[in-house]
What we know:
Number of helices: 11
Oligomer: single chain
Largest sheet: none
Mean pLDDT: 89
Amino acid sequence: MSDLYRVLILAVVQGIAEFLPISSSGHLVILGSMLGELGESATLEIILHAGTLGSILIVYWRKILDLLSRDRRVIVLLVIGTLPAVVVGLTIKEAFPWLIRSPLLAGAMLMVTGVLLIVLGRLPATDGRYERMGWLGALVVGCFQAVAILPGISRSGSTILGGRLMGLGKDDSVTFSFLLAIPAICGATTLAIKDLLDGSAATSALSGSILCIGAITAMAVGVFALKWLIRWSKEDRLHWFAYWCLPVGAIIVGMYWLY
Length: 259
């Protein structure tokens, strides 16, 4: 398979799974183990993250402008919500780096994501606004995001569940989840750049044109996936994704136990 096709596969998976509650990290770890060094490239990781960050900026640009002009209190909530992921992420990176590259763990955690989505589907309706959420609520949602550093745990699914448990309405839990994704993705990209510069991560021999195609593909697919998630959240269908996560996770775990 040519590099272009492999990059396109990873870009499509990143664009879909970054936003739909099926875990982009889990799917990319599993695919990366199949695609070899290309799946481990820090350069490609940076490019794909930049693409999906672009998706959020396209869909939520009005909300982001509101944060900068009127709702500046929410920026503080986003900072508080990001702290747990920073602490957990740096700890895992330094002490247990193999965890974030384990296909077996990714499969097991996909099943956990399936269970979380089923729980999400059974929560009663709430109508809280993220602009009125307290710092403790933001911290709790941030802890759900921190758990999602493990491959296979969906960041969107876990943070939406955390928001709903904190009383946020469907739309507001989704909005806060993806506003919180902006510093998270920027942080992950910064770490990848650091690893690339200090030589501790695999570089890529991919051409600039292939990397650009990957970024644009991830962004375009991400916009579609994000709008899909927003629509299905309003219709209380997010738990349907459990029926993807549970069997896929079981298959991956079964394959690694058998072989």
